[in-house]
Design brief:
alpha+beta; four-stranded mixed beta sheet; 8 helices; globular
């Protein structure tokens, strides 16, 4: 079994009731039998819950920044030979090592231009002064930007579409806008994913299921 082992599950959450939805729709719905099937774990092997850990998580509600702690569930697969394999279970709205929600990253990627301040230009409001400055938001968006550039996710998505449907994915990108975006590679991936998925919202969280960003 390849290590480290991560599995990403799709979960529906309303950020207006995020903590309740995260518990009810994600943590309480983790199905061990389905995960065994998804990871091709043998029937003779045991899969059990094995605690987890808390981590900080930032998300938006109506352009207002919120912060909470979320629990990442860990599982233990015990093979017939007594070997232990630990599995981390993630919702598609979370990127490993990144405390920003995927939807927050998406919002910034399609709205923030070069030279703009995330707070001063009112892209995001922080009335509770959760952050002193934009540095944390920028740093983790930049990590995702770098991953998109290094892994060329947009080209991979185009190739997958061509293979599946025998035609080129039709992606329109305004070049003048593209070169002025603060996170152009994420913006390009969003536009590509938008065409691929046929939806304009929560595109990156969908693509996180496909590419497992930064894992």
């Amino acid at each position: 079994m390849k290590k480290p082992i991560n599995i990403i599950l799709q979960v529906k959450v309303n950020y207006n009731s995020f903590e309740k939805d995260y518990q009810n729709n994600f943590l309480d719905q983790i199905n061990l039998d389905k995960i065994k099937d998804d990871l091709d774990i043998a029937d003779i092997d045991r899969l059990i819950f094995n605690g987890g850990w808390y981590r900080k998580f930032y998300y938006l509600v109506d352009n207002i920044l919120h912060k909470t702690d979320i629990f990442i569930r860990k599982l233990n697969c015990i093979t017939k030979n007594g070997e232990n394999h630990y599995i981390s279970v993630w919702p598609q709205i979370v990127i490993k090592y990144n405390p920003l929600s995927v939807d927050l990253i998406e919002y910034m990627a399609i709205n923030v231009r070069k030279g703009e301040d995330i707070f001063l230009n009112k892209h995001i409001n922080d009335p509770d002064f959760i952050l002193d400055c934009e540095d944390l938001l920028h740093y983790y968006c930049l990590r995702t930007e770098t991953a998109c550039e290094l892994n060329n996710f947009s080209a991979s998505l185009n190739a997958a579409y061509t293979k599946n449907y025998n035609q080129v994915l039709n992606v329109f990108v305004n070049q003048k806008l593209f070169i002025n975006m603060r996170y152009p590679e994420i913006y390009l991936l969003h536009k590509t994913g938008q065409a691929y998925q046929g939806s304009s919202s929560m595109v990156l969280s969908y693509l996180n299921l496909v590419f497992e960003f930064l894992r």
